[in-house]
Give the backbone structure.
Amino acid sequence: DTGEIVDVPTLTISDLDPGTSYVFYVRAICAEDDLSNWSGPRAFVTVIVNDECDNAILVPVNPDTNCGQVVGGTVIGATGSSQPNDCEFSGTADDDVWFEFVAVTANHSIDLLNVVGSSTDLYHIVYEGDECGNLTQLVCSDNNQSIVTGLTPGQTYKIRVYTWFSGAQTTTFDVCIGT
């Protein structure tokens, strides 16, 4: 080791899709006639947009419980969040994703629909609070459907969704807020 700092080329790609698996290979070009073998494949998954509470995706509130409007979700590429998980049920929030809705009445239903992938056992927690660092848990559910009562119309509420199993999961689902 000579202690010499070597300029390592980097490649930045800005238009990768969130929550998507990619594979890449690397090869050195030492000279025009001196190429190394390809190294790889190496895989990675891009972080999804709503991986953290501050980037929760807004879910529209349906005027009934028919779920005419839903928002698609996935835990592919999700990581654990810093918010504590005080859910009395288990599950592993190492792949949690965040959604939010604005209450229009005091009671709303939360439905996780069309759940497919490596884990169909989902959990969800509904929180109140304006700051992600200061949330109060209202409901914790091991079922894919819950009823939240005592809401304040006009107030924004957060929903945290995660799977039972630890490690990378490939689960996708739809979120519905019903009235």
DSSP finds no helices and 13 strands in the chain. The two ends are 67 Å apart (CA to CA). The longest strand covers residues 92-102. The mean pLDDT is 88.
